[in-house]
Design goal:
The protein is an alpha/beta fold and 242 residues long. The chain is 37% helix and 29% strand. It has ten helices and eleven strands.
């Protein structure tokens, strides 16, 4: 598999605080790759750098072989979405006063292929039938889990080539978490490449092909997800088996 995303020795932070220190990772076509670590490890900052929202202080990022970010330069976040680099943000960030359907269609804002949009909308409804049943309901009236489904659906309408997900299980009832992870697996089986940041390390490693462990802004471990699941260091620190 070729590397769709290449993050090479990136350094980034906020103000005088450096959060990421020489972070490198790769995501290959067709993979689910997970990035795990404790609170404040730099997981969300990593995604924000890849999305073009947080500027780099060192290193570079390549997507589909093209340099998209470096020190003092980078492609705008909205332009990256148009190229297929799409993020489902932490906290969902749906539009609460817009209907479910309007929220979904915001994902297709930059598209003009009506047939493709209609097909992707049906794909979303097939994954999350509750969204079709509530298409005219205001987004803000949905439960947390339903809003997460809506955020994922909106991202799918953006026609992603790489879908980045930031803490999709946070604050969601377990029964809906299972449904969301099942949908992620189904999207990947359909060919979508996924980079997953997730607090539930066990579930993330079971879902992913490969994983990276991020600690205080540095990658400290990387391996096949199945091997990380049985690594004593990961089990003690993140799986509660120590």
């Amino acid at each position: 598999m070729s590397a769709l995303l290449e993050v090479q020795n990136i350094v980034a932070g906020y103000g005088s605080i450096e959060v990421l220190h020489q972070v490198s990772l790769e995501v290959h076509e067709g993979e689910i790759v997970t990035l795990i670590g404790g609170n404040g490890a730099g997981k969300s900052t990593s995604l924000m750098c890849i999305s073009g929202i947080v500027p780099l202080r060192g290193g570079e990022i390549r997507f589909a072989g093209e340099r998209i970010s470096g020190v003092g330069e980078g492609i705008r976040a909205d332009k990256l979405v148009g190229r297929g680099l799409v993020q489902v943000p932490e906290g969902r960030r749906i539009f609460p006063r817009m209907t479910v359907l309007e929220n979904l269609m915001m994902g297709a804002y930059g598209r003009d292929d009506k047939a493709g949009i209609a097909a992707d909308l049906e794909k979303v409804y097939a994954l999350f039938d509750i969204l079709k049943a509530r298409s005219s309901q205001l987004g803000g009236t949905l439960s947390g889990g339903e809003q997460q489904m809506l955020a994922i659906g909106r991202a799918i309408l953006s026609k992603p080539r790489l879908l980045m997900m930031d803490e999709p299980s946070m604050g969601i009832a377990p029964i809906l978490v299972s449904k969301i992870f099942a949908a992620v697996r189904e999207l990947n089986r359909g060919g979508l490449t996924i980079l997953l940041v997730e607090q539930n390390a066990r579930a993330a490693l079971k879902l992913a092909r490969r994983g990276y462990v991020l600690e205080t802004g540095r990658v400290t471990l990387t391996d096949d997800a199945s091997k990380l699941l049985v690594d004593p260091r990961v089990r003690e620190a993140y799986l509660g088996d120590g």
